[in-house]
Write a structure and sequence with these properties.
This is Mitochondrial Homoaconitase. With 487 residues, the chain is of the alpha/beta class. It is built from 18 helices and eleven strands. Strand 4, helix 4 and strand 5 form a beta-alpha-beta unit. It binds zinc ion.
Length: 487
């Protein structure tokens, strides 16, 4: 069972880490302007990310050989309110659905996909209500079986489009609906013509596409493309496909149909984001996502994970389309609704996504965030943290904290204090409060002349005197007492 929602991400880093606000990176835009402010002098401005302020080509963008690539031209079909409803813990009331739909609209997804109105009377009513919200950015789709009864219900709700799906693999043809490809094709054409006659969008998708016969797939896609529709869909319903298979199938399909290509990837074997990216490289145009990836079994391509991947390929394009600062809010909203926690290592918003620990890394991060980050936390309204109260810490990271505390110390003094922090952290990781206490006591003593650089024994005596807990954290630890907020 999933963990309770009250274990939501609350960066423990607040305890043990330094938020590195002074290194807010300023990313050069394509026009050469700076889109972020930095408190650092111009000479110290970090040159974040791949182009370092120069007009160099993004090495992670499409190559000249990628003539099919749509990594700078794609749309999201957000399926939290359809695929996500199939998640084990999900039960969305109308009120919750409306909140999620409004949040996704404000984020800027191009489409929101809803559960079939044929699923239940409440699903029909919910679909109708969300269609009447008048969302600004997102078009509303619903996802139905390839059946005229479902299609009639769908158009009654006022949706902007209908996503039709039918199983084409031998598994599904044999064990699900029991129909052959001739019947499937005839049924598809009837439904497509009907939905088109209502003047709304129509997509036709196979189900379990990667375990379907290629010749069957291409044949039905070619036929429905000739009939005329907005999109065909490829679905890795069981999560078996790998990026190379995806690239090959989508590239082949791109040569067969002229309409858009939508892709839906399950994450059973951990390829959902990579497969989405490979699909776009091969010419797909639309990717299905859900918030936190929730869906049937272990779900599909997560919205945040896709955004993370696509930010690397074309940051300006992604930033121009989506309100990225809302990502965390939307994830928290959905996590609460389905009573799960945001994973610690979640893309972008996981509490350790932008936390740096190792000493050498911390030094480099302070000098230039791009050294150990491909994504810029500030693009998502997130902060970068450098953890300093541990044995791997370095004096540059400690110096950053000294500056935040407004303590006037020379580099030599910071190195001296760092040696003590490392010595104590060799026994037990020091909390941020402990580190602050050590630095304050050190600063007071060195300023008054009571302490000189290098007098580690004297420093320990001072810490013992002014920090009640330091005795327990010293190299000869005794019985632990509650941590005091020494100052
Ligand atoms: Zn699915």
């Amino acid at each position: 069972m999933c963990p309770p929602a009250d274990e939501q991400l609350a960066p423990p880093s607040k305890e043990d880490c330094v938020p590195i606000d002074t290194s807010a990176p300023a990313i050069p835009t394509s026009t050469g302007q700076q889109n972020g402010e930095s408190h650092l002098p111009a000479a110290a401005q970090p040159q974040h990310h791949s182009n370092g302020g120069q007009n160099k080509k993004n090495p992670y963008g499409p190559r000249y050989s990628d003539f099919l690539s749509n990594t700078s031209n794609w749309k999201i079909i957000e399926s939290t309110l359809r695929e996500g409803e199939q998640f084990a813990n999900a039960f969305f009331t109308l009120e919750t659905k409306i909140k999620i739909a409004k949040a996704l609209d404000a984020f800027g997804v191009e489409y929101i996909e809803l559960t079939s109105p044929a699923a239940s009377p409440e699903s029909f009513n919910d679909c109708k209500t969300i269609c009447s919200l008048g969302l600004k950015k997102s078009k509303i789709l619903t996802h139905i079986r390839c059946h005229m009864d479902d299609a009639r219900l769908a158009v009654e709700t006022g949706v902007d489009g209908v996503d039709v799906v039918i199983g084409t693999s031998s598994f599904l043809r044999e064990h699900s609906h029991g129909k052959d490809m001739t019947w499937i094709t005839k049924q598809a054409i009837e439904v497509i013509e009907f939905v088109k006659s209502k003047g709304i969008e129509i997509r036709f998708s196979s189900e379990d596409s990667f375990r379907s016969e290629l010749v069957d797939l291409l044949s039905i896609y070619r036929t429905v493309d000739k009939v005329g529709l907005n999109r065909v869909g490829v679905a890795d319903t069981v999560g078996c496909a790998d990026p190379r298979q995806v690239y090959d199938l989508v590239r082949t399909l791109r040569g067969v149909v002229s309409c858009d290509i939508e892709c839906h990837f399950h994450n059973d074997t951990g390829c959902a984001i990579a497969n989405a990216y490979a699909a776009l490289e091969a010419g797909a145009t639309h990717i299905d996502t859900s918030v936190l990836g929730i869906g049937e079994r272990n779900g599909i391509t997560p919205l945040g994970g896709l955004i993370a991947r696509m930010m690397v390929a074309d940051p300006e394009y992604v930033k121009s389309k989506y309100n990225l600062h809302m990502l965390r809010e939307i994830e928290n909203l959905v996590a609460d609704a389905v009573e799960i926690s945001v994973p610690f290592n979640n893309y972008i918003t996981g509490f350790c996504a932008f936390t740096h620990k190792a000493g050498i890394h911390a030094k480099a991060i302070l000098a230039n965030p791009a050294t150990y980050e491909i994504l810029n936390p500030h693009d998502f309204g997130m902060s970068r943290y450098v953890s300093i109260g541990h044995r791997l810490t370095g004096w540059n990271a400690v110096k950053s904290r000294v500056e935040q505390l407004n303590l006037d110390m020379t580099d030599e003094q910071v190195k001296d204090a760092t040696a003590k922090i490392k010595e104590l952290a060799d026994v037990k990781t020091q909390s941020m409060e402990d580190v602050d206490s050590i630095l304050r006591i050190y600063h007071t003593a060195i300023t008054s002349g009571e302490l000189q650089v290098g007098q580690q024994k004297k420093l320990q005596t001072l810490l013992d005197k002014h920090m009640p807990t330091s005795r327990e954290q010293s190299p000869a630890p005794g019985k632990r007492e509650p941590v005091a907020n020494g100052n």
